[in-house]
Amino acid sequence: MGAPVTVRGRFISIEGGEGVGKSTQIAALAAFITQKGFEVLLTREPGGTEGAETIRQLVLGGSAERWMPRAEALLFAAARSDHVERLIEPALASGKWVISDRFIDSSRAYQGGGSGLSDNDIMTLHQIGSRGMLPDRTLILRLDTKEAVSRAAARDQNQPDRIQGRTEIFHSDVDMAFVSFAEREPRVRLVDASGTADAVTARLLTEISDLLEPA
Ligand SMILES: Nc1ncnc2c1ncn2[C@@H]1O[C@H](COP(=O)(O)OP(=O)(O)OP(=O)(O)O)[C@@H](O)[C@H]1O
Ligand SMILES: Cc1cn([C@H]2C[C@H](O)[C@@H](COP(=O)(O)O)O2)c(=O)[nH]c1=O
């Protein structure tokens, strides 16, 4: 009799602009997947490991001018490298599902679409840092900007971090970049984030139903 086979877990990233409801929905998705009998690891970017959480403070704190776009992209890629190698890969290898609040598509949308770096440069950094690892499914929550800003402002009492506080044009470019990924890449799905939290969860579950089926 051979050794027991551990089936690799699934990797889902949740993306979108500020305040669209990612954290709220991740908790609901995790509860559903756990109920289906899978072990789920919840994590976030930038962050998830001690080193990456330290980079999070560096890159999201301080003045708006603290980092130029290329340095910012390198910091996100370094945080992601540690996150993938120390947390995400081992969890998937042990059969856990991993749900990450943001992943590589945030770098492509914010440092690419928003700050003007090329997708090629960002993916090159990702190849070096994380061997180009991509999620099995990426769910992008989309919400009218005014509603998202008002949700985030109510939650943060108008204390945005150095990226959240950027111009409306920046955030609109980020949103357009997210949409363009979904148009080109089947793993990426756009999900309407308006309405009640339960209604949004139902839409998200539709987009991962194939992953929950037995192989
Ligand atoms: N469907 C919803 N309807 C109304 N309010 C919501 C809904 N979903 C989340 N919220 C509220 O909106 C705020 C932002 O939600 P949440 O923190 O989940 O968003 P987020 O995308 O993780 O934000 P950020 O990117 O800034 O971390 C929270 O106060 C949350 O309770
Ligand atoms: C991973 C990643 C994140 N960002 C930005 C997006 C947000 O403004 C913050 C993270 O804050 P949140 O409240 O945890 O959503 O960081 C980015 O610009 N590039 C990235 O790769």
UniProtKB/TrEMBL annotation:
- Give the UniProt entry's GO cellular component terms: cytosol
| PROSITE patterns registered for this protein in UniProt | THYMIDYLATE_KINASE
**Entry's Gene Ontology BP terms:** dTDP biosynthetic process; dTTP biosynthetic process; dUDP biosynthetic process
Its recorded name reads Thymidylate kinase
Give the protein's function: Phosphorylation of dTMP to form dTDP in both de novo and salvage pathways of dTTP synthesis.
- Family membership, please give it: Belongs to the thymidylate kinase family.
Q: Which UniProt keywords apply?
A: ATP-binding, Kinase, Nucleotide biosynthesis, Nucleotide-binding, Transferase
All residue ranges annotated as the Thymidylate kinase-like domain in the record: 14-201
UniProt-listed Enzyme Commission number(s): 2.7.4.9
- Please indicate which superkingdom the organism of origin belongs to: Bacteria
SUPFAM superfamilies listed in its UniProt record: P-loop containing nucleoside triphosphate hydrolases
* Species assigned in the record: Sphingorhabdus wooponensis
Residues reported in the UniProt entry to bind ATP: G16, G17, E18, G19, V20, G21, K22, S23
Reactions performed catalytically? dTMP + ATP = dTDP + ADP
One molecular function GO term is:
ATP binding
